[in-house]
Amino acid sequence: MTDVTSRANPRTRGTAGKAAGGAGAADKARSPYLRSSIIVGGAIVVFFVLLAVFAGPLSAITGNDPYAEHPEALGAASVPTGFGGGISASHWFGVTPLRGVDLFSIVAYGTRISLGIGLFSSVISLVIGVTLGLIAGYFPGLADALISRTMDVFFGFPFLIFAIALSVVVPQSFPRPLLLTLVLGFFGWPGIARLVRGQTLTLSKRNFAVASRVMGASPAHVLWHQILPNLLPLLIVNVTLSIPGRIGAEAGLSFLGVGMNPPTPSWGRSISDAVQWALVDPMYLLFPGGALFLLTFGFNLLGDGLSDAIDPRKGVRA
Amino acid sequence: MKILAYIGKRVASSLLVILLITLALFLIFFLLPTNPAQLSCGKPCTPEQLSRVAAFMGTDQPWYVQMGNYIAGIFVGRTFGTGGGAVVCNAPCLGYSFRLGEPVSQLIADRFPVTASIAVGAAVLWLVIGVATGVWAALKRDTIVDRTLLGLSVVGVSAPSYLIGLLMVIAFALVIQIFPSGGYVNFTDDPVDWFYHLILPWLVLAILSAAGYTRITRTQMIGELSQDYIRTARSKGVPESVIVFKHALRNAMLPVMTMFGLDLGGLLGGAVLTEKVFSMQGLGALLLDSVSNLDLQVLVGATLFAAVLVIIANLIVDICYSLLDPRVTLGRS
Amino acid sequence: MIKKHALRVAVAGVCAAVLALSGCGASNNTANGSDGQSAGVKGGTLNILLSSTEMDLDPAKSQGLPITSNGNIFRRLTAWKVTKGGETKVVPDLATTTGEPSDDGKTWTYTLKDGIKFDDGTPITSKDIKYGLERSFADSLTGGLSYHKTLLEGAQDYHGPFDGQELDSIETPDDKTIIFHLNAPFGDWPWVASLAAFTPVPVGKGPASGYGKTPVASGPYKVESNEAGKQAVYVRNKYWDKKTDPVRTAGPDKIVFKMSQDTSVAAQSIMQGTGEGKNSFLSGFVPPAQLAQAQANPNYKKLLVTSGDGALEYLAINTKRVTDLKVRQAIEYAVDKKAYQTTAGGEIAGNFATTLITPGIAGREKYDLYKASSSGDVDKAKALLKEAGQTSLKLKLIATSDQAEKASSIQTSLKRAGITVDIQTLNDDVFSDAETNNEGDYDLVIGGWQPDFPSPYANISPLFDSSQIGNGNYNLARYANADVDALIKKATETIDQDEAGKIWAETDKKIMADAPVVPLIYSKNTFIHGSNVTNFVIGDFPAYPDYNQVTLASAN
């Protein structure tokens, strides 16, 4: 996550796409760069999915979990002993200073949080965004006006600030992963809705939609069977490209101390803990930081490639 | 005239948005299981003292009364307490921080230059870098240059700014000590030092944010360069530089400027992460502080300020868009 | 040290951050800096690096220690004489004595010295001290240390001097004399008279808001500028007369407080000594990483100064919910203090605690009611639980996110005795509410307490008097014992300090017999200063450096 809103907040992801309309005719087939980006990006994403799913068994190979302390791996002043922050056969990524928790376990379990929040919040945004977008696009007038104004409210809302405030307010007994999923999901829909609304406006004027309507098809039928399928590729790309923003947002909030609570492993929190150790134990910062970068990188590559695959004219989307 | 009606409509709906945001913030903080008066009670704290403080701050009132007082304060100002010991907050009163002993509008006025310095400097940089590399990539489409720039841009949009910022601080301020590790110096106190302190934050924000601009500019340029009018111009023998910069780039810039306006508007309301990494006391830091100290009035005031900036940026972008692009009709939401 | 949050952290009270930050590892002995006793010079600019973002210097709102950031600009009736490795004493400052008690300690009289002036040259009178105190009662100026507010007669209904009312229990028969009438005898009044509220404020010149930016000074320095988020600059006050001041050495020509510093980065720059680093010190504790780094390098190690045994860190057991004494005693034996110390940063984070009154405070008697190895006595704990008929005890421990590691350590050690601990992590401000509100929805909580002045009163009373339960107060064990309340009252009202000390020691043991808290460690604080900074003195109390004495080795 950066401070720049177009990426700090997944909701504006779609906006840039909208702005990027009006490209000219295709003059070249999809580029080899973009094909390879699907393969590389996809491989990275699959790798992390596997890491998340098998975090338990993988950590268990060396008999570790992200909670147990290993004071024996620490030297004087509670700093890990040995090469690279205590990297060894039993601690693949070394251990954390002060308590000696296995860093590989933290990174592996942290993947679950990052990926889980990224994916599930996308689903929430998708459901809300598609539903409202279809309605707004298909029923001009009151419904459209209401939904469009609501989108304005969300676009004007300082998301980061709101998320920070909310984390203080919601009782701690409410699970943090669920809270972050809901917050990111609930604030991520307007971008999707805007995209869907625009496409629906166009598609519903096309011959096939007009024809079904004339033949007496219900709006639900038209929307579900004729408009939505046409939107699918675009939505897949949009969601893929929005996931890095969501993962970054979770990590950023945890970095600011208002996301995941300890002892739940989280990359962002590990990064913020590791910063002051950077000169003493750089590996502590490197592993979670590297994982966060690599996963967002993977999703961005994949999104680029997919975007090109469905619409080679545009090539890379901004 | 149509444009005026449009602006009027947008301003009206913006006011509604602001009201809703205020409502949401008050509701949220009313739900907080804490007593803001407790922080100002002193040590040791007696129950009598606690209720005295709450009454003075007005936090003993129901939330809707507190919200009403707050909104009224924006127009007519507020007075806390009575007589010679009263604290006055003049209109437009965006609230009063008892913790800091200052009106929120004063706090915002103090902090805004910091955030604005970060935001404007970085924005100019990332726009220049992003557009230049985007045009270059588009002109060298599918060459090694294009692929390298594209690859770098994916890296750029994937790297979290705070992580890169922290690494830069470690590298340039601690290991090789050529830049200050953070802090802010007033431009009016020492322009050179001001610039010196801002170099790292500008670079971090600009380089990473430029990636998005590289991508959108490249896409737009490729689109424009394949348009018929460009071909016509080329066939007429118009010089390539004129085609690229005068015609294609000009049209390609419209969506780029849209994105730019929104990004800049959002950033001016508080560069939370950048300010945190570089220990700068801008609006973002003020907001984070107000959350951790339960300083509701600061939180609401600063959030409203940020929301207004975003809304204004949206408004400007939409109006410019509709004025410049004949294809777009007013009323686009 | 001025920001309220920082205050809770750095100076006073139960606070998570104290615990989190104090966890360190440094050298063993008190004040091991190489340069402790060198003379230092007059002149130069000293930098003090703070993480807080603003300095509200209004004395009415201050919870600061008299020897830190406001010690150099404000004088009070009495002051603290801090000596390296010695007991901290209360000495006369603006007054000629530390106070003359009469009426069995209900009335205290002070006479002001000659030649004391504000920074504009006007003489300081007893009326200015009275006005300063009266200001602290204004509704807009709350939040400071308020020991005097509960002690002064008739203060309950007093709302400050801004509408012309005066507080009658403070008498100023002439410009040199000030008399305080208390509602009960109070032997520690000389200490109370050293706190910030006793700073003189020129009558009529301290408005109800905005005074904290550049207040009128009475000490060796005055505030030249104070800009939130950036810095506050102290320069010499030419009207201050060294002859009248027994504690302030006023070495540097200028003291600059640099605000909103990242502590890790600041510690780093002090170690490397680049730029202003060598003329600076960090007001907060050295973060664990920089501590580890400094200890590994002899050049850096000599810049560290570790305090002696300081704030008591303890595990409070909510006696309202864990009512069975046997269970509480079992917890006393079950806790692994050794593991706790390791998590806190090792031996140097602090020594094992057994008493409630901390070392360095007059009257303390050492004892251990629950003798066991430093890792506890699990068998004894199990036996006690069995006696109590507890087989599957479940307890809820609340903690801030900063305390997470220490909380985990407690969880692990109680597990050994078969006690399950559920940790509930809370956001800082929600936490401070949860531990001090009237509900007390927890079984266990980790606390830390640095008294506001070095007296057993400030050590015991806020934590164990039944009047200090809830309402934002710090009796975290929610411990109520009428006998103990009576002993506290008796000790408080005893004017003879030796006699009072004996009663306090008795109170200490009596409380521990009820096992409302498990004393864990007396935490030590480690500070770091630049190579050109000298006279960086930490006395037996408090575990913070005395800013009034810090000087530079050579003028920069």
UniProtKB/TrEMBL annotation, chain A:
Residues 111-303 form the ABC transmembrane type-1 domain. The chain crosses the membrane at residues 38-61, 73-93, 113-139, 151-171, 177-196, 283-303. Residues 1-25 are annotated as: Disordered. It comes from the Bacteria. Pfam families: BPD_transp_1. Signal peptide: none annotated. Coiled coil: none annotated. It is found in: Cell membrane. This is ABC transporter permease. Keywords: Cell membrane, Membrane, Transmembrane, Transmembrane helix, Transport. It is a multi-pass membrane protein. Belongs to the binding-protein-dependent transport system permease family. The keyword Plastid does not apply.
Automatic annotation (TrEMBL), chain B:
Residues 112-317 form the ABC transmembrane type-1 domain. It comes from the Bacteria. It is a multi-pass membrane protein. Its main location: membrane. Keywords: Cell membrane, Membrane, Transmembrane, Transmembrane helix, Transport. This is ABC transporter permease. It comes from Bifidobacterium santillanense. It holds the Pfam family BPD_transp_1. Belongs to the binding-protein-dependent transport system permease family. InterPro entries: BPD_transp_1_N, MetI-like, MetI-like_sf. The chain crosses the membrane at residues 12-32, 114-137, 149-174, 194-213, 256-278, 298-324. The keyword Disulfide bond does not apply. It is found in: Cell membrane.
From TrEMBL, chain C:
The keyword Signal applies. PROSITE patterns: PROKAR_LIPOPROTEIN. Keywords: Signal. SUPFAM superfamilies: Periplasmic binding protein-like II. It holds the Pfam family SBP_bac_5. Residues 89-470 form the Solute-binding protein family domain. This is ABC transporter substrate-binding protein.
